Amino acid sequence: MFRATRFVEKPDHATAQAYVASGHFSWNAGMFLMRAASYLAELEASAADIAHAARAAWDMRRTSAGAIEPGRAAFLASPSQSIDYAVMEKSRRVAVAPVSMGWSDIGSFKSLFDELPGDTAGNRVAGDAVIIDSRDCLVRSTGPLVATIGVSGLVIVATPDGVLVATKDRTQDVKAVVDQLKAMGKSDLL
To answer: What gap in Å lies between CA 169 and CA 138, rounded to an integer?
Structure first.
């Protein structure tokens, strides 16, 4: 393990190329390990508004069947900023542990599709679904039955609160749906 001189999240293209070419930088895989108390102290020092929202969400938590659900209103009121920008870039207590391992950052439905095994038609299915004459679809349901007939290249995600249908190449645009739901005053669906 080595103490990091600094943490830089998403440098511009030229800077990233210079970092790689120098051989003196490690790449962040987005995996962080720290004690909760240490994280909260760093969060308080660098992003007090997020720390305040986290405390409020914890104070308004509900517990049932062994699960803890943070207070929804306080959680949704928190500023949306990644740990990388809110804490890691500002902290003086960063170390890096070089590792060599298989890793895939499943950050989208398309990347999830690419990682899951498919049936003979290339469909990836989890939950209650009937798939007829459909190819290369990701269907996940924790809500209603999903049925497809004669479609291809779709991502369909169904929950008790809603259904998302998108082509695989547009799933990164789900942020537009989130923004529209917020504008419509439907943040409870998020």
So the answer is: 12
d(CA 32, CA 83): 9
* DSSP tag of 100: -
**Mapping DSSP to helix (H, G, I), strand (E, B) and coil, where does residue 162 land?**
coil
Q: Which domains does the chain have, with CATH numbers?
A: 1-103 (3.90.550.10), 109-189 (no CATH)
Positive or negative torsion for Cα 20, 17, 86, 107 = negative
β-bridge pairing 129-132 and 95-96: unpaired
Do residues 172 and 188 lie in contact, with contact meaning Cβ atoms separated by under 8 Å? no
Supply angle C-alpha 51, 29, 85, rounded to 5.
Answer: 30
- pLDDT for 110 equals 83
Alpha-carbon gap, residue 113 to 122, rounded angstroms = 10
What is this structure's pTM?
0.57
pLDDT digits (tens, 9 = 90+) for 80-136: 999 999 999 999 999 998 888 776 767 788 888 988 999 999 999 999 999 999 999
Tokens representing residue 102 in the block? 């298989």
